[in-house]
Amino acid sequence: MLLQARGDRYVQARVWFTLFERLWMLRGFENVLVDPYLDEVQFGRLRDRIVEYNLSIIDQWIARDVDSVYFSDDWGSQRGLLISPDDWRRFYKPAYKAMFDRVRAGGAHVWMHLCGNILAILPDLIDIGLNVLNPVQPQAMDVRKLAAEFGGRVCFNGGVDVQGTLIHGSTDAVRREVHTLVDLFGRFNGGYIGGTSHTIMPETPLDNVIALFEAFLEYY
User: Fold this and answer.
1) 126 and 216 co-located in one domain
2) In this structure, are 84 and 171 located in the same domain?
């Protein structure tokens, strides 16, 4: 009923806790980090079963004519990737490509939530079909570097610093950060969707939250 009443609204579906997170929920975090090296065959079987399940969900969403499918897997710490980029490419990249391909073949956009510094694999994600990256965490990745190297190749969603500026900054600092992000990413056609670097923390001053919304509303 909701989809039938969508009108011209952009509809986003989700395949949440997509693969890496689903694996460590099933196996435990430490286990899933060593599984590919201790028993690659069994690791591959479990990974591929999860992908098959996800593909069936994607097919259901595509059949309902959604505009995008939103994936999630937190691959980054604030300093870098949780595993070797080469190992990520070996054990995981083909799985993401299969899922992204299914979404793109159905005419929908690929969104993905990836916390932390995932700069090492961002070119790979773009190459296999990523359309929108969330979040942009300025304390983990340099926003100017992202704009210079990837602006126009992928749309960035987020970026206003919930760890620093929103909690400790002034309302003017919040507004300046919004304007900076829009200037960096918004210069590319479809290059930016405004938002925060993650969930707004409870200790954030209300005036800063209001300043955040007011600053973004200047562009609508």
Assistant:
1) no
2) no
